[in-house]
Write a structure and sequence with these properties.
alpha/beta, five-stranded mixed sheet, 34% helix
Length: 150
């Protein structure tokens, strides 16, 4: 079970209103939203690099609230996944079906390997993908906003 809590020890500001960061039992959920494009690329790339520097064992990159993404944004996602993998962390990418189609068309499906449910993304990130009977209580439930106290 994953009890996701906002990461409040981060010393860097998140880039504008494009993201939230949550932690639960070694799993870090990076929630992005809004338009992810060239206009926010520099700040978001730096922030994502800082997230990888946390050296978590598993990440879920949650793109369900992303309203628009261009090739710059998709390349940032690929960079995030590759950087996490170089630190031996696993990554699950979560997105809506329309974003899934875009990832396939862009040719990054093989790297990002996105899924459309929180359960699948957590299973991919935690190495329980395909395990019989695996369930996660946090599936598809809203998580608290960045900085919100419980």
């Amino acid at each position: 079970m994953y009890d996701l809590k906002p990461v409040v020890t981060a010393s860097w500001p998140p880039p504008a209103e494009h993201c939230g960061l949550y932690d639960g039992n070694g799993l870090v959920v990076v929630e992005l939203h809004g338009d992810i494009d060239l206009a926010c690329a520099a700040r978001l790339r730096t922030w994502l690099d800082s997230v990888v520097a946390l050296r978590a064992s598993a990440y879920v990159l949650d793109l369900r609230a992303v309203s628009f993404v261009d090739s710059t944004g998709l390349n940032m996602f690929v960079r995030f996944c590759r950087r996490a993998l170089t630190h031996e962390a696993a990554v699950g990418v979560l997105c809506r079906p329309d974003t899934l189609r875009l990832v396939r068309a862009h040719g990054t499906h093989g790297v990002l390997r996105p899924v459309t449910t929180f359960d699948e993304a957590v299973a991919r990130a935690t190495g329980t993908e395909g395990a019989h009977g695996t369930t996660h209580a946090a599936a598809d439930r809203p998580v608290r906003a960045f900085g919100e106290r419980s």
